[in-house]
Amino acid sequence: MSRFFHGGGSDSETSSSDEEELYSDHEAGGDEEHSESESSSGEEDASGDEDSSSEEESKRKGANRFFKNFSESEESGDEDRQTVVKSAKDKRLEELEGTIKLIENAEKINDWAVISAEFDKLNRQIVKVAHSGPAPRIYVKAIADLEDFLNETIAKQKVSIKKMNANNAKGLNAVKQRIKKNNKDYAIEIEKYRADKVEYMEGDEEEEVEVKVERPRVRIDPLEAMSIADDEGFSTVGRHGKALQYTPESILKHLRLIVESRGKKNTDRLEQIRTMEKLLEVAQNPYQRIRVYLTVIATRFDLTSSSSSNHISPEQWKFAEREFSALLSVLEDNRGYVVAEGADEWEDDEKQPQPVPGEVLRIPGSVVSFVERLDDELTRSLQHIDPHTAEYIERLSDEQALYNNIVRTMLYVEGLGNTDKSEPRQDSINRVVMRRLEHVYFKPSQVVTILEDAVWKAIPSKMDSSITPRGNSVDVPALVQILCNYLFKYSDGIIRARAMLCQIYFLALHDNYYRARDLMLMSHLSESISNFDVSTQILFNRTLVQIGLCAFRAGLIYEAQNTLSEICGSGRQKELLAQGIILQRYSTVSPEQEKLERQRQLPFHMHINLELLECIYLTSSMFLEVPLMAQTSSTPEMKRRIISKTFRRMLDYNERQVFTGPPENTRDGVIMSAKFLATGDWKKATELLNSIKIWELMVQPDKIKQMLAEQIQEEGLRTYLFTYAPFYDTLSIATLSTMFELPEKNIAAIVSRMISHEELAAALDQVNDAIVFRKGVELSRLQSQIVTLADKSMSLLEANEKTLEQRTQGMANAFQRDQVPGGRGGRGQGRGGQTRGGPRLPGGQQRRPGGQQFGGGALGGAIKA
């Protein structure tokens, strides 16, 4: 080959030296003469080139031309290779990307041994990369995704650590121990990445593009170049290198593309949100801003369906709330534009509508639906946060901003009557007024006052309401009354029923028992509540409980016990009040039903204290049951009846215990106090009952304790009279006054009431201030046994007839009960057409006069009393 080059006469020094290097290994020591001749020919050619430079092109023929082209392409190739020469930093980044790729592949197969090893390698590599600048974003993305994958694996229990092999379990534990400590150093960057992943990584791509532009030898495709902003708008570079132009004229086109892509798979909603944020910057008129706000708020709400959670993140909720507030500001300042639910959509994207002076431009949408969705999303968020953390308090502080938007929405919809006569606004006003009422009814007046003061400070002074006018001093009871009266007048169905229940709840919460009771009786909701939806039934249960608590605070023990018995006697307080789910072992509830139950749960700040509720119910039952047990024990011929099965069951369980220690909880304290009261030690019962710490949770606990002490004294007196009446002929009132530390006038009043109710066979001697007991006809032993036998025979007869009715499918007995009023039906009337023992409740206990139902039940009995 050296001869071939020699014949050409145009060999260069560089090419000859390359040939020497190429063949030096193969011809070392064997071709020395050949090398010398080649080098000498190269020298002659070089000298020849210097002398005849003008005749180069004419003398080069044959292989010389190929050699020339080869050398030129080699030089250009060397130049190209200089542009792709990688620096040490680029090499480290490539190694980093390779390690991250291995970790991602190992995550797909849950190979924690490989993940642990590569994670350690990744951390060693990042130390070298970090010397030349901040940590690259691909590393931040990798460690954030790894931490999320670890938490997801542990939470969902995709892998059982016990079933893993030793290496996998060891790798999982190693990553679990090191990931949190490692990520603390990059906490700020990880938060930025998790807040908006796509924008975070695109920012990295933009930085890389900018660096490449500064290199002189890098060749950039013109389509990938960053376009320059013009006077009308701005442009950005997309993923595929396309320049996107956002101008006021193209806003409607972009919005139509976004709306048409809603509901489709693989739609990047965060990218759409960023696009609409840029559209807001170039929007020039109110119509454009309103359209963009309506679309971006709806897109933020769509994030819920795209994620695994049931609510949007707090950050997205706050963005949506601010955008909704900005939308209201635009609508308030431009009354010529109205957002209406039944409006026709503008079809021409090339031309924007121009409002005619004096007319209203109607835009399709619903501000009421938006504020309702904001309310629902905040409720769902509070349901999923631990209420005993500071995060719950911080999240609850967003309620003020939500309440401001609710009131502003009410003012806006209320003012549509002056601008848009065709808008059916009554239903919208009812919905938003109901939302406002639902944020007020369960709060004390002090809290509502703070809410209202902040609202009217935030609302522009030019705006006012005809329903709730602006005022300096906020009268909370008057505000609730106004909202409820408006809904009573202009709404019907479920909204009207909920408004009634909210007003009753508010009255009971503020110790207005008699008015709350009267409203409940007049509403007749107890008769039709089963026809309403579940959330309204839950509100009904909460209102019922609040009436019972109000009666207890007022010292109305009998009314409190009867009102609370329907909820507390069932043992399902959590479910009935939507404050928790009781998962039973053999439950037949499907996962869908359980999910619905969890969605109905109320946030923690709306809960009624269940322990306090149980304590009040047991205390009320104690005041009724202890005298009743004393009365039935002293008169065997009196038929036994039970007021509270729950209390009796707890009392029997306590009495069966061999060793009874001091009370450990609220329930034990009430039961021990009942035992002391039954034995006549009313002082010990008072001391033990007042020592329960849960009374401190009530308003004015000292007043409650004083009321309890008076009730114990009174019921202790009644228990004493029932127990020892058979052993007395006369009893001095002064003696009773000394024993129970009550004024003689109060004792005389209590005894008179017992005599008038035929609970005590006695007469009051006012001259001598004594009680004269009347001895009834005492039954002999044989007569007592006959009465007992008659009761058992009647019970057996009822059981037989019930069995017969079941076998004959109830046809014959039903006909007999219908045709013969005095017949002996299984559960009908007894001889002589009179009911045996009075009406019975589902639990089998007899109903006290007035019963326990609202339709003439417990509260009806209280009115009759």
TrEMBL record:
Sequence segments annotated as region (Disordered): 1-86, 814-865
Transmembrane stretches, start-end: none
Keyword Kinase assigned: no
Gly residues bias (residue ranges): 1-10, 822-836, 852-865
ATP-binding recorded as keyword: no
Biological processes per GO annotation: formation of cytoplasmic translation initiation complex
Function per UniProt: Component of the eukaryotic translation initiation factor 3 (eIF-3) complex, which is involved in protein synthesis of a specialized repertoire of mRNAs and, together with other initiation factors, stimulates binding of mRNA and methionyl-tRNAi to the 40S ribosome. The eIF-3 complex specifically targets and initiates translation of a subset of mRNAs involved in cell proliferation.
Protein name: Eukaryotic translation initiation factor 3 subunit C
